[in-house]
Specification:
- The protein has a 10-stranded antiparallel β-barrel with strand order 1-4-5-9-11-12-13-14-15-19. Strands 2, 3, 7, 8 and 17 form a 5-stranded mixed β-sheet that branches. A two-stranded antiparallel sheet has the order 16-18.
- By secondary structure, it is mostly beta strands.
- Strand 14 and strand 15 form a beta hairpin.
- The protein has one domain.
- Helices cover 10% and strands 50% of the residues.
- It comes from Gimesia alba.
- InterPro entries: BBP7.
- This is BBP7 family outer membrane beta-barrel protein.
Length: 452
């Protein structure tokens, strides 16, 4: 028979052995960082993109061991016992931040249009010189004033009717963003500098017997009265060079209407009328230069050759709030639109007139200038036809007409007048505050791309 004391001692040894084994498991179990046989804690599960697998996380121990510490203490781990974590797909910058979604929506609702322009802005039939006392058209031949005792000669004045009729190349770019309540559209256009001229040579000044005139004249008034009683005569080559440039930008907000009028094609098209409001900036620069020569060696005293130069330059800066209506007939294959806009703003303009040797070779250079700000109304009308080649790409062709009033132009700011008190060395021609209308119009050809 076993001694009861031995039985008690054996039971205490078994009990203490079980407590020690449990303590070791608690110290080196999964929460403590000890290796765990595969399948002891995790069970295999299926994964595919878009499958939301529930994950449970628990707080790691404070004394979490690094990989190097783990290997130095336990030795290298077998690859089959490594735990692999599957991360979600990288969703890009911001990780679903509200700004990320905003930029994405703006890109999906944006569009861009680029257009080729063939526009012109002719100055009209502005007369180079003053009227004549008879009231007849000075562009037609008339008997000239005998300034130097040459006898009766035929003369006429030139005008700018043949200037600026060809047009210049330009480009216009528009960027828009569509919202539920409307669209914001910002556009910029620029025109290449257009140079045009009109000239008369000696072959065009052979006299009435050859169907021409003897002279070309720039007539002036005297002290603001009696137009056409004084002036300058040319019997050599006369040339008028004219330069025009324009650029501008505008931004408009086109307000969406609640529904299409006369809706057709199951809601995919119809007549749509939308109001718009915006602001326009327009910069207009023009320059005119006139050169004419005179020579007469058969008179007593002889008149040697000298050349007269007249330069006139203007610059206009228009700041115009505007409003209008966009009318569109929308079809799944094409769109036809018309858009009138009216603006009321101001024009900050300046100009200068330079003359050199106007009366003779002893007449010095004179420069006069003007600068002022005036009220300036504008009107623009454009028609456009767009062909929808795809959901994202559209081809368009159209015509655009822009009118502005109270604009300084080179041919209009010259005051053709002389002073009787100092006719030879005083200021001959001067700059004056005379404003005209301005018309810029022509063909539009381009394409539009909508971001998918």
């Amino acid at each position: 028979m076993v001694n009861p004391a031995y039985r008690l001692l054996l039971g205490m040894i078994v009990l203490l052995s079980g407590v020690g084994f449990r303590s070791a498991q608690a110290q080196y179990g999964p929460a403590g960082g000890a290796p765990v046989p595969p399948g002891a804690v995790f069970s295999p599960t299926g994964y595919h993109p878009g499958n939301q697998v529930p994950m449970n996380y628990e707080q790691g121990p404070v004394n979490y061991q690094t990989v190097d510490q783990y290997q130095s203490y336990y030795g290298p781990a077998d690859q089959s016992e490594m735990i692999t974590r599957v991360l979600p797909v990288d969703r890009g910058w911001g990780y679903d931040h509200p700004w990320d979604g905003l930029f994405e929506n703006l890109a999906h609702n944006s569009w861009m249009r680029v257009e080729y322009l063939l526009w012109k802005a002719p100055p009209g039939n502005q007369l180079i010189g003053s009227e004549i006392p008879s009231g007849n058209d000075p562009r037609q031949p008339f008997v000239g004033v005998d300034f130097f005792g040459f006898g009766t000669q035929s003369t006429r004045e030139l005008d700018l009717s043949s200037i600026g009729t060809q047009g210049a190349n330009g480009i216009r770019g528009t960027y828009g963003i569509d919202f539920v309540s409307g669209s914001i559209e910002t556009s910029f256009f620029g025109m290449a500098s257009e140079n045009s001229s009109v000239s008369v040579g000696e072959a065009d000044l052979l006299g009435p017997e050859f169907g021409t005139t003897d002279l070309i004249s720039i007539l002036t008034s005297v002290d603001g009265n009696n137009p056409g009683t004084d002036g300058r005569q040319f019997n050599q080559k006369v040339a008028v060079n004219y330069q025009h440039s324009a650029w501008g930008l505008e931004s408009n907000y086109v307000i969406n209407t609640e529904r299409l009028l006369f809706r057709t094609y199951y809601g995919a098209g119809g007549l749509q009328i939308r109001p718009l409001v915006g602001f326009r900036y327009l910069k207009i620069g023009e320059r005119m230069e006139i050169k004419g020569g005179f020579e007469e060696l058969t008179t007593t005293p002889p008149q040697p050759f000298f050349e007269t130069t007249i330069k006139s330059e203007t610059s206009n800066k228009l700041y115009v709030p505007q409003a209008g209506i966009r009318m569109e007939f929308v079809h799944p294959m094409f769109t036809i639109s018309a858009q009138p806009k009216v603006g009321f703003g101001v024009n900050n303009y300046n100009g200068s007139v330079l003359t050199n040797q106007f009366w003779s070779e002893s007449d010095p250079t004179h420069v006069t200038q003007i600068s002022q700000t005036r009220f300036a109304p504008t009107f623009e009308f454009g028609v456009n036809a767009r062909i929808h080649l795809s959901e994202s790409f559209t081809f368009n062709v159209g015509y655009n007409f822009l009118w502005a009033n109270q604009v300084a132009r080179p041919g209009g700011i010259i005051y053709y007048n002389t002073s009787s008190s100092n006719p030879n060395t005083g200021v001959s021609l001067q700059a004056k505050n005379s404003l005209d209308s301005y018309k810029l119009h022509g063909l539009v050809l381009g394409a539009e791309y909508r971001f998918p």
